[in-house]
Fold these 2 entries.
Entry 1:
Amino acid sequence: MRVLVTGHLGYIGPHLVELLLKDGHFVTGVDLNLFEDSVIYPHAAASDSRVMDLFDLTPNDLRGYDAVMHLAAISNDAMGILNPQLTWKVNYEGTIHVADCAKRAGVPRFLLSSSCSVYGKSDDKPIPESGKLAPLSAYAETKVKSEETLGQMADANFTPVFLRNATAYGSSPRLRLDLVLNNLIGSAYSTGVIKIMTDGTPWRPLIHCRDIARAFVYFLNAPRDAIHNQAFNVGSVSETYQVRQVAEAVKHLMPDCNLSFADGATADPRDYKVDFAKLNKAFPDFKLSYDLAAGARELHDHFYRYKLPNDCLTGDRFIRLKTLKRKLTEHQVPAYFQLATNP
Ligand SMILES: NC(=O)c1ccc[n+]([C@@H]2O[C@H](COP(=O)([O-])OP(=O)(O)OC[C@H]3O[C@@H](n4cnc5c(N)ncnc54)[C@H](O)[C@@H]3O)[C@@H](O)[C@H]2O)c1
């Protein structure tokens, strides 16, 4: 098949490109390459890798493709707080622009990388896809609104699908250290202290970034009727943790490092358990290939094998917000990125 992946130079993207190439697909990647300094080890190149803004795509670019996997985004809450307008522009308008081009070009399938953060906060009961959406950030709001508008675009020839991914962790050729597990290992590695930024109580479903990529491949191959215009939570009940349990997993790997809470650490309002029964029913043979312990072990190994610098947390290579701030200051981004930025 011919597959166009936006965001192929992000954290999840390189795993996805590798898996698609392994299955024999022709993969076109479209990405601004905002995080080019985050590479820690080489990765497979897309069949056709284009460093470009997704707003420059036209229907002509998408003709002849079997599916679009849309991952490009301003992809976390922190960047959304810095610049909510930019998050709305890229994540909502950008998504609809790419989907509109895909639909006009006759691409039958559009897989959106959405997020479990659309649920915001739950009581103790895991939330299914039909549950209440309560986005707590601009980032999460853009995912809700994108799903809604894409849903209205669905028809006999255009199948949008929404993969509501759990919070990612784990090693990638293009590493990020602004995700909970990765950050805690980075903290232990660079300072000797496993520093928790909240009170450690919030619940969060986690998933290895490579398992998110594997899920996209499943949805590429799934029968249309099983997924047409539907949302799926992507993760596993058994991989749902409190932040302090994640910290304890790091302590297990790095027993000489002490746990500590950041000054003024408070409860994180983003606190949810998610129900993954729909995914299990639709794809009974899809099992996560990592659990937290295995993913933490591998990432810990990679810190040493790829000799991550001691300033991995204080520098801007692996922290998206810091990279974005630098690029805004240096005008290394498209002009529309300079929309109002919160101080
Ligand atoms: N990492 C997670 O925990 C997680 C969880 C759930 C969902 N998601 C979603 O999965 C997707 C991929 O996540 P990721 O962690 O790989 O993100 P990432 O930030 O590492 O990568 C996003 C990529 O999008 C590119 N991009 C941004 N704006 C662009 C534009 N205007 N034109 C072209 N490219 C642009 C960036 O250069 C970057 O390479 C995102 O949509 C994210 O919201 C991520």
Note: The radius of gyration is 19 Å.
Entry 2:
Amino acid sequence: MICPKCESENCHFVSQSNTTSGSFCDGCCGFIFLGPIGILCGLCGKDTDVKEFWVCDNCGCKFQRGLER
Ligand SMILES: [Zn+2]
């Protein structure tokens, strides 16, 4: 992978998943207002919130996949 900013090949792949805190909070809020169905809505909403991107070790630029030439 080549950095689109400085064109360095010194990049590494990062995968982050944000499924715990946000979903749990939404589930609680949903339960208060909607009951058990609200929990499902809150959990389904952000279950697939996974961030995947490349980070350039040279300049610190973050970029998505698909930019390689
Ligand atoms: Zn770079």
Note: Residues 11-63 form one domain.
